[in-house]
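Hi C.,

You asked whether I'd gotten around to modeling the 78-residue construct. I have! Everything is below, sequence then structure, no commentary in between.
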Amino acid sequence: MTRKCQLTGKKANNGYAISHSHRRTKKLQEVNLQWKRIWWEEGNRWVRLRLSTKAIKTLEKKSLADFAKEAGLNLNKL
């Protein structure tokens, strides 16, 4: 399973670690992912998703069904 947010699609970013002498080495900036159990009202059950912390904050404003519909995620298959 890739390290990717199931709702927002966020994934790792390539970048450089720059030292004091300005030498550049490649690094991977991973997204902050958390396993989260969220109550899904329409399905009347818990859904376990791997979400970025940004998506968790957004879920406080939007409902899970609306957010999943925007992302094109079918909650019945989870």
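If it helps when you're writing up: The chain has one domain: 1-65.

Thanks,
B.
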